[in-house]
Amino acid sequence: MLNKELLENRLNRIVNLYDNLDSLIDKLPVKLPNGAKNQIKKIIFGNKEISEIISGLKERRPPRLIMVGRTGVGKSSLINAIFGKYIAKTSPVEIGTNQLKRYNYESDGDILFEVIDTRGIAESSTESLTTAEDDLKKAIEDFDPDAILFLSNATERARMDEDVTYIKSLYEEVGTQIPLLTVLTHVDNLEPSRIKESNQYTDSKKKNISDKKLQMENLLKEFEVACSTVILVSTYIEWNKENPHLLSLEEQKNLIIDFDGRYNIDELVDFLENNLDFRASIHLMMTTRIDKAVRKISNLIIKAFAVASTTVAITPIPFSDIAVLVPLQLILIIFIAYLSGADIDKESAKEFLLSAGGVGALGYGLRTLAQQGGKALNLLTPGAGSAVSSALAFSGTFSIGKAAQAYYIDKKSKGEVEDIMKNANEETEGK
Ligand SMILES: Nc1nc2c(ncn2[C@@H]2O[C@H](COP(=O)(O)OP(=O)(O)OP(=O)(O)O)[C@@H](O)[C@H]2O)c(=O)[nH]1
Ligand SMILES: [Mg+2]
């Protein structure tokens, strides 16, 4: 099983390869024409997507959330539900003169989330609201949150208006650039409330859930906070011991799920992964769904390299663009292989590129090249300028990345990869 430390090592190796791109290019099994190396470096270092991924990997850190919601709405339960275990929080630090609290949720010495909890404000009187909001504003400037999570109980219609009024004023106060997610909790208690297993939800329950979603969306629109996504969840978990919050840290750590009534938590985690700052998103992936993390990161890398490849076609270069494209693709293959934990040497990257996956993927351009230079990738062949169009460069690199993913990460056989690529290629050529 992949653990966090193993994945950390792999990510560090990729960062290392990127930071030592010169020596990586020197080790590629290709003979580069003069100037090609600089061109390759320029394209990789100049690509915004690639550099964002690398700095995200380097500077990964826990997500910083503001959690807004009344006592009992399910803020702590939501964190437990995300991780599928009982997560202790550090003793809260009070901020300012009010009940604003800041704390971390931690597990095995790792900080999973840093949170500012504003529940005190929502429940305090209007007189103290102004001071509280000033305090909050200051706290948020230091905290620099990745997202605001606004929780409201789906079964308490009467309070939803009040909650939305509060979130509106808060959101205007702190700046609307921060992603705002509205989470309606306790949906397991919507009728028929006796059904707690999410896979047993009846059509009528699902209808009640979607009605509730619509209701909240309309309310947010009415209050002009329409930018918020609304996700409905149940965070309901029964642990093997009563009153888990009263147990010692050690006992809490050993709690086991007796009954799992969670609903729609994956959608919520997806939202966070896609909307948080990338540094926080990587951390979240690594602490929640580590097996998916590898695939997600590899998807991002493939896409970024595919985008980078399009630059090859539009930049005038004094040699064949294949001379730049092929090394880019080799580097992509090496990154994917490292991400999978494989130790790939230059010969195997070359073999991969020339075999099923690679040749199939780039289609005609590379196939010709393979016929010419199967023994050594000799890219010194006089160039024909821009022979590869942006679209072909993109789809070629994208397919090669996918082939590498199928082979190294999904452990498909060469034959299977070949089939996948043949199909993809026929589709492209058929168009
Ligand atoms: N059925 C059901 N119960 C929930 C759900 N979310 C929370 N609860 C229960 O509601 C109670 C309060 O939940 P907490 O997660 O402690 O609420 P909180 O927002 O952290 O409350 P404070 O820490 O006091 O602000 C607990 O008994 C939870 O088990 C849910 O989605 N469904
Ligand atoms: Mg709590």
Number of beta strands: 12
Q: Helical proportion?
A: 55-70%
- Can you give the mean pLDDT? 84
Number of helices: 19
Quick one: CATH superfamily of the largest domain? P-loop containing nucleotide triphosphate hydrolases
Q: How many domains would you count in the coordinates?
A: 2
Q: What hetero molecules are bound to the protein chains?
A: guanosine-5'-triphosphate, magnesium ion
Distance between the termini: 42 Å
> According to CATH, what is the class of the largest domain?
Alpha Beta
Overall outline: elongated
CATH topology of the largest domain: Rossmann fold
- Coarse structural class: alpha/beta
The unreliable regions are 359-378, 380-386
Sheet with most strands: 8 strands, mixed
Describe this structure in words.
By secondary structure, the chain is α/β, with parallel strands linked by helices. Strands 2, 3, 4, 5, 6, 7, 8 and 9 form an eight-stranded mixed sheet that branches. Strands 1-12 form a two-stranded parallel ribbon. Helix content is 58%, strand content 14%. It has helices spanning 4-19, 21-27, 36-46, 48-58, 75-83, 119-123, 126-143, 157-174, 203-222, 249-253, 265-275, 278-288, 290-314, 322-340, 346-354, 356-362, 364-373, 390-409, 414-430, and strands at 30-31, 64-68, 88-89, 93-95, 100-107, 110-117, 147-153, 180-185, 229-232, 234-239, 257-263, 377-378. The chain has 19 helices and twelve strands. Mean pLDDT is 84; it is low at 359-378 and 380-386. It starts with a helix and ends with a helix. The protein folds into two domains: 4-59 and 291-430, no CATH class; 64-275, P-loop containing nucleotide triphosphate hydrolases (Rossmann fold). Helix 4 packs across helix 12 (278-288), helix 4 (48-58) runs antiparallel to helix 13 (290-314) and helix 11 packs antiparallel against helix 12. The chain binds guanosine-5'-triphosphate (GTP) and magnesium ion. The site of guanosine-5'-triphosphate (GTP) has 16 residues, from helix 5 and strand 10.
